[in-house]
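User: Assemble these into one structure.

Assistant: Restating your components, then the assembled model:
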Amino acid sequence: MENVQLGFLDYAILLIYVVFVIAIGFVLRRYMKSSSDFLTSGRSIPAWVTGLAFISANLGALELVGMAASGAKYGMATCHFYWVGAIPAMVFLAIFMMPFYYGSKARSVPEYLKMRFDERVRALNSVAFAVMTVFASGISMDALAKLLHQLLGWNYHVALWICSAVVLVYVLKGGLTSAIYTEVLQFFMIVLGFAPVVYLGLRDLGGWDAMTKALQGVSVNPAALHLKEAGVSYAPDAWTSAWQPLLAGPKNNPMGVDCFAMVFGLGFVLSFGYWCTNFLVVQRAMAARNMGAARRTPLIAAVPKMLFPALVILPGMIAVALASMPASNYRIPPLALEEKAIAAAVAAVKESSRADPQAGVPEVIERVSAAQKGVNKETGRAKKLLGFDQAGLAAVIKAYAGKPIDADKALRAEFVAAFSNTMTDYEFNNVIISLVRKYCPSGLLGLALTALLASFMSGMAGNVTAFNTVWTYDLYQAYMGRNKTDQHYFWMGQAATVAGILLSIACAYFAKQYNNAMDIIQLVFGFVNAPLFATFVLGMFWSRCTGTGAFLGLFGGILTSALFHGVTVAEGKGGWLGMQAYSFPSTMAQNFWLASFAFIACFVLTVVISLLTQRTKTNEELKGLVYSLTPKIKEEGTAWYLRPATLGIVLLACCVVLNLIFR
Amino acid sequence: MGLDIRLPIGLMFTLIGAMLAIYGLATTSEPELYHRSLGINVNLRWGLVLLAFGITMLTLFWRGRKSSGR
């Protein structure tokens, strides 16, 4: 990709945004007097603010580019991550779980686990969470810096350090309050920055109906765009319906997922496990000014969440529709080649014969693939061959063979663009940026770019504020420095903020260097997270559940995930135990089923072990922590239409309507 | 805590909106700039939208301040 030139106005918009978020940090600095001001906002924030922060912390840069990528790969069915996979869980959190999180006066989710069970469960949860947030933050930073490098030609290191420094300054000054307030500002920035891009894309296509028509063509023959192997064909609505392709079975939709896995695995286990137990989002609600505000937080957040597919998934669908129309002159962004792969391409094409370009094609593909993917030591060949449009590549070879590509910078850039254009391996994560480049003139470009940076910063600030609280209260105060003064914990919270950001930067470099290791780490996090909701739901609704039961059940669930992954395969992933009990059509299906099994294993084990062990907490101690032992919240003071249950039902009804419209 | 977030949001979008709109106005005679955005002067139009949003936020801020009696 050639770089985009930013104008003066674009930089000015970016700068204004940075000045405002840093200023918010400085204004809030004078309110930071104790560790609870810094780490939990002193429980002082109105519901609409925590609600928007709740959704903004979740809408990190990876979410934004990743959902557009999925929209391109799988179409409308991606919306399930927002509808099935979020709204019910958010409503459940508001109505049933928030009273315990907020009412127990716990300062974090792990601390709730300690109150409800014991020290072991808290230790397991807080260590896993702390490590996970740092890695998640690092992965996201690496992705952003790469994107900025590819799009704007910014230096990877400079982009990484400057973005982190901005987040560091405002979080360090204003703590969680500052993170939450800037997240609201970032929320509006993201929405207002990307909305015009979506509008222009749709208009360019000729409207919704034209997009549907184009995507029907893609569904019938996805191989024309190299989205699937040759010969694969789906029903015409595969990219434009949310439910029809799923109901037709895993072989008949591009996701390769069946209905049960979608509804139980994603909609119940993974979704409830994320929204109801992940401290990153729950922390926002816990910072609300009173119980009513805390319970309304996820409900307020559910409204934009329900509508976000129009902003983050639609661009992916627009991109595929555009790519299927030759007149649009748009291509799905090709895989970004590494510098050494480009060098290999230059050398290989230069040495090819112009007289018979077709003959040079396999050699060029082999050399470029070897440079990009590495060489298999046994065969001496590339580990994996990249995909190319053979005829297109032959044409490029014919045009450039024998030319001094290296000597002339302009010629080299022109060659790289032409060469990349013949690739049929895509970088779907670049889809949203490619649309920004296509439609945004100087001015709007700065706005869209700022929106991208805002989404990155909101996600990162979310991770950092969750990390510093869990570190300070659940790890440091619990195990290392007990009974210190509050000022000491305040200081520790700030130190953890700096350390958290530095560790994230280290993880970003690690991710850049060791791609495969990072995949494995994320896989392990998946194992740890899958069974989590079983522990919470049993803890909150069954007073007989014991600490030993919860702890061992959680371990059993994690072990089940690992074993499940060991005996099943999908797209060449898994099966590391050497036997294959089952083969899934896609890793997504494998993932959903893995979560389902882990949940069930954790649930059953926790129940059985709890029944076999003695209770260590009396009913009196569990008051406010378990549903049946907690007095119902009195809501006489709240108008019936503002009560969480009413709002929750309305939201669920809206969600059902959306599903029916786009079925 | 003592900051009404509507103030910075309002200020920022008023500022950015005004800048975009003015730039849009100044470039009405440069159709090649808007070739990308399908011939629409998006800077002017979207700048005005942002401006309206910013002013709405500021208005809400002022009304909130009045009602809380500060």
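Chain B touches chain A through 29 residues (CB under 8 Å).
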